[in-house]
Write a structure and sequence with these properties.
The protein is mostly helical. The protein contains 4 helices and no strands. The chain has helices at about 20-45, 45-65, 70-80, 85-100.
Length: about 100
């Protein structure tokens, strides 16, 4: 069975031949912890920590060649910063987490 477009893996713009590839692999390996932090801080309504984590993910994902993540992390960061309704924050969080789970 082939994966749908939504489930396709996302690879860094830096391929295996890149000097940064080892760092990219470390970033991807750390993603489950980052995702857990996003989900936990949302569940516990620790808004400033959620905003900060989204901000850090926004910068790091771009630095490691995962430019697809940047706008989703930015949207979550802005929603939290602007104290958007909880359901809006949750929508941004779910989109970001689903995308992060596809990084390879």
């Amino acid at each position: 069975m082939t994966e749908t477009l939504q489930e396709e893996a996302i690879f860094s713009a830096f391929g295996p031949e890149s000097d940064l590839f080892e760092l990219v692999e470390m970033f991807v390996a750390d993603l489950p912890d980052r995702i857990a932090t996003l989900e936990t801080t949302y569940a516990q309504q620790r808004w400033e920590e959620l905003r900060r984590t989204a901000h850090q993910l926004k910068g790091a994902s771009g630095s490691y060649g995962f430019h697809q993540i940047t706008p989703y992390a930015a949207a979550l960061e802005i929603a939290v910063r602007d104290m958007a309704p909880t359901d809006e924050i949750q929508r941004h969080l779910v989109k970001l987490v689903n995308l992060c789970r596809r990084l390879r």
